[in-house]
Amino acid sequence: LEECKKIFQSSSKSLEYIESKAENLDSLGKTFDAVSIGSAFHWMDAEALAENVKQFLHPKSFIFVFEYQFPRSIENLALNDWVKRRFNTEWKAPNQRPRGSFRDLLKPLEAKFQAVHFQAPPWRMKLDLKTFGSQIFSQSRYLHSEANLREDHEIQKQRDSILSEIAALWGNEDLLDFNFYLDAEVFISRT
């Protein structure tokens, strides 16, 4: 949040940044022109969020919901299978449940707001092994697995082990091509 303030401070003095649980906006005593939810909607109570946000948005304001899927290698299917297996078995958060599709998650918002469909542009990047590992280590699913480790040296040992497994699948290439997938939807307040 502080980084956003730094980036946009010179472009507009009328922006106010607030960090809050979306299901509890009433506690802030404010109304909003926009709500942005990035890669977190699947953790929220969608029904409560839709009802709460509806009360605090100005007319014709919007909600922008997005999430990205973990990048998939274009040519290394074994690596993709390894990532999928680890994310879906070993790195699940304790209370995580199957969430359905992005569209399924958004149904409570579609019932209360006008949806404006958004098609994200294709996103393709070349990554080296270290950068790909950093992508894994920044994911909330993976970070939940680290929460059980008590010491920094245990975390580093786990990360080194994971990087060794990835290296065995990586092959001889310095860089691999990856597709990134962004799901996004814009909703406009009807009143």
Q: How many strand segments?
A: 5
Note the overall shape: elongated
Uncertain ranges: none
Helix content range of the residues, please? 40-55%
Biggest pleated-sheet summary: 5 strands, mixed
- Count up the helices: 7
Order of helices and strands: HEHEHHEEHHHE
Mean pLDDT: 84
Strand content: 25-35%
- Cα-to-Cα separation, first versus last residue: 29 Å
Topology:
Layout: H1 2-8, E1 32-38, H2 46-56, E2 57-73, H3 77-90, H4 102-112, E3 114-117, E4 123-128, H5 129-137, H6 140-146, H7 152-170, E5 175-188
Parallel strand pairs: 1-2
Antiparallel strand pairs: 2-5, 3-5, 4-5
Helix pairs in contact: 2-4, 5-7
Can you offer a commentary on this structure?
The chain is of the alpha+beta class and about 190 residues long. It is about 40% helix and about 25% strand. It contains seven helices and five strands. It has helices spanning about 1-10, 45-55, 75-90, 100-110, 130-135, 140-145, 150-170, and strands spanning about 30-40, 55-75, 115, 125-130, 175-190. Strands 1, 2, 3, 4 and 5 form a five-stranded mixed β-sheet that branches. The model has no long low-confidence stretch (mean pLDDT about 85).
Keywords:
7 helices; alpha+beta; 5-stranded mixed sheet; 5 strands; elongated; 191 residues
Quick summary of this structure?
The chain is an alpha+beta fold and 191 residues long. It has 7 helices and 5 strands; from the N terminus they run αβαβααββαααβ.
